[in-house]
Specification:
Blueprint lengths: L1 H25 L3 H20 L4 E2 L17 H19 L1 H11 L1 H6 L4 H27 L1 E2 L7 H11 L11 H20 L4 H30 L4 E6 L2 E6 L12 H28 L4 E6 L5 H16 L3 E6 L4 H13 L4 E5 L5 H8 L5 E4 L9 E3 L3 H14 L6 E3 L6 H17 L7 E3 L3 H6 L1 H9 L11
Parallel strand pairs: 5-6, 5-7, 7-8, 8-9, 10-11
Antiparallel strand pairs: 1-2, 3-4
Helix pairs in contact: 1-2, 1-6, 3-4, 4-6, 7-8, 7-9, 14-15
Length: 474
């Protein structure tokens, strides 16, 4: 009998697959297709049994016999199915997809998820569980009756709606549906206890269904109004919510401007929707095709040329660059770093960042692939592209010395940076090798803009006789 039971459950799953395939392929309301396939399956049952009850004996009676505390294996299996289904619905990606499809199938599709296989799989699972429920009923009746289950579809709808599942989709719970089944069962048992006739039972069951649907519709219409703040409306998406701006109606525009204003707003809505879809697709693919670039001064020709090269390289590989200029301000650097990470960038390029402890801690905690440019940062695990600043300053200073110059000034940058210290070390090394005392040279710990602002002081220093030991500093 076990092969026969498995075959019956397989046929039920096949019927569910057929229902889902027709619904998805032709975009027919699933309720109509389900009723059609139900009547077809019932007709096949009548044909196979010749419209008579088939007695099968006690082969499956053990499913309904109590084993402990009056609980049967069928009830235990049903509880396990409920628990597993609830966990799948609430704790897995598949479950969130199902909620998203029920809420807004178009949003799920635009998010890069094909809802069709998930819908078909759900119908198949429902068919399989219906076959399991039929097996439980056979174990109780010890017979296969083709008329068994007639009218249960209405009770199922009532139990689901009473359990809080929305017929509009997007809200539901397997546990709540279970309690809805208990309520319907208690209602049926109560009506039987008071001796209600069969027509009375049907009237009351139908009234319960209508009331539950009305309450569900009212609740669905009331929910967005509760979340609105006058300017926004809730739009359910794949497992969550989007907030989009509610634009005024075109009828509110001044005469003569309605068409243009309405078209402009329509274009804004479409642009906003495309932006939301792009974000949704990036969340699905876990790739935004963006690279963050953090530089200290975009006006500096060095960093401007660096940014241009990075942008060209990213463009050739299908990536966009988000440029942030920190002005050598650690506070702005931390702020921009937080913004870039919130944008879910695929990579981060950091050029010439300050070396404050909290900023270094922030960079050390970054899990995004990162490249450091221009200087090494202690404790930061990242690839490094660095210029040998000490050797560069040494070569530049030696070149001037070879030309016969001895009164040489060095602008090495902000004093707190390691780059400035390396440049100054190369400058002093060249002077020492040439035998020129440091007293005959001058160096400024200043940035290029500060050096430009010092023009009067530099002219005075260049034209005025001064002691050899003086070194103007800023």
């Amino acid at each position: 009998m076990l092969p026969a039971a498995l075959l019956g459950m397989g046929c039920a799953a096949l019927a569910g697959t057929l229902t889902g395939s027709i619904t998805v392929a032709w975009r027919i309301p699933s309720f109509i297709v389900s009723l059609g396939v139900l009547e077809m399956a019932r007709g096949v049952a009548y044909q196979l049994t010749d419209s008579r009850t088939a007695y099968i004996g006690d082969a499956f009676a053990w499913l309904s016999e109590p084993v402990a505390f009056g609980i049967s294996p069928a009830f235990i299996i049903a509880l396990l199915v409920i628990v597993v289904a609830q966990l799948v619905l609430t704790r897995t990606v598949f479950g969130r997809y199902l909620i998203g499809i029920g809420t807004n199938e178009e949003a799920v599709r635009l998010a890069g998820i094909d809802p069709r296989p998930y819908k078909i799989l759900v119908f198949s699972l429902m068919g399989l569980l219906a076959g399991l429920a039929a097996l439980f009923q056979i174990s109780r009746l010890e017979a296969a009756d083709p008329n068994a289950g007639s009218g249960l579809e209405l009770q199922v709808i009532a139990a689901v709606v009473i359990g809080g599942t929305s017929l509009m989709g997007g809200r539901g719970s397997v546990i709540s549906t279970f309690f809805g089944v208990l309520i319907i069962s208690v209602l049926a048992a109560g009506l039987a206890q008071i001796g209600a006739s069969e027509p009375t039972k049907r009237i009351i069951t139908g009234a319960v269904i209508v009331i539950a649907v009305v309450l569900d519709t009212y609740r669905s219409r009331r929910a967005p109004a509760d979340l609105n703040n006058g300017n926004h409306q809730r739009c359910s998406g794949a497992g969550g919510y989007f907030l989009y701006h509610r634009f005024p109606r075109a009828e509110q525009d001044p005469p003569g401007e309605r068409t243009g204003a309405a078209q402009g707003r329509s274009g804004d809505c479409r642009a906003g929707l495309r932006a939301q879809c792009a974000v949704a697709r990036s969340l699905k693919a876990r790739c935004t095709a963006t690279i963050g670039l953090l530089v200290p001064n975009s006006v500096n020709p060095y960093f401007a040329e660096l940014a241009r090269g990075i942008e060209d390289g990213c463009e050739r590989n299908g990536y966009c660059v988000i440029l942030c200029n920190s002005d050598d301000d650690p506070r702005k650097q931390r702020s921009y770093l937080r913004v870039l990470l919130e944008k879910r960038i695929d990579g981060l390029i950091v050029a010439s960042v300050g070396e404050e402890a909290d900023l270094l801690d922030s960079l050390a905690s970054v899990r995004t692939p990162m490249v450091i440019v221009d200087r090494a940062l202690a404790g930061v695990d990242a690839d490094l592209v660095r210029i040998d600043h000490e050797q560069g300053a040494y070569l530049a200073t030696r070149h001037l010395l070879e030309l016969g110059h001895q009164d040489i000034a060095c602008i090495n940058g902000p004093a707190h940076t390691s780059v400035a210290k390396m440049r100054l070390a190369g400058f002093h090394r060249a002077l020492a090798q040439a035998g020129v005392p440091c007293a005959r040279a001058a160096w400024w710990t200043a940035t290029l803009p500060a050096w430009a602002a010092m023009a009067p002081q530099r002219n005075c220093w260049a034209t005025t006789a001064r002691p050899r030991s003086s070194r103007p500093t800023t």
